[in-house]
Design goal:
single chain, mainly alpha, about 60% helix
């Protein structure tokens, strides 16, 4: 008698926990961006909003190739730009540099990084991640 075990329930629980953590992150960075906008004015709010939208503008890099792509596929020419703008380590490293360097203290830059991290976090929470070289979602 053979026993078949499935990892699907464990994988879905792990996936749900991961996505819930990303959602909590997204709400945190969104609240921080709003707080920075309230405390530092319209420029901080505008940059937070711009950097919230900016990562998805990488789709425009290969807009002319889009009609020839399969459903859900990003044109391969746009993948490096998309993946670079959707890696959380990049804005986190910039936040770290912002926090520890003594010569650059501009709150709108901090608000922009909060907006960027909120975007990445919402994408991960809703199941959108990095892309393969061919332009499809990674698992």
């Amino acid at each position: 008698m053979s026993t078949v075990t499935s990892t699907t329930p464990h994988r879905s629980v792990r996936s749900l926990a991961r996505r819930t953590a990303w959602l909590a992150n997204a709400l945190f960075w969104s609240a921080f961006a709003v707080l920075e906008a309230v405390n530092h004015g319209w420029l901080a709010g505008a940059l937070a909003l711009a950097f919230f939208v900016l990562p998805d503008l990488t789709f425009l890099v290969a807009l002319d190739d889009a009609p020839r792509m399969a459903k859900g596929q990003l044109p391969p020419r746009a993948v490096p730009y998309y993946n670079a703008m959707h890696r959380a380590l990049i804005p986190l490293a910039l936040l770290l540099a912002y926090a520890f360097q003594p010569f650059f203290n501009w709150p709108p830059a901090f608000a922009a990084l909060c907006g960027w991290l909120a975007h990445i976090s919402y994408d991960r929470a809703f199941g959108y991640g990095l892309r393969t070289n061919e332009g499809f979602q990674r698992d």
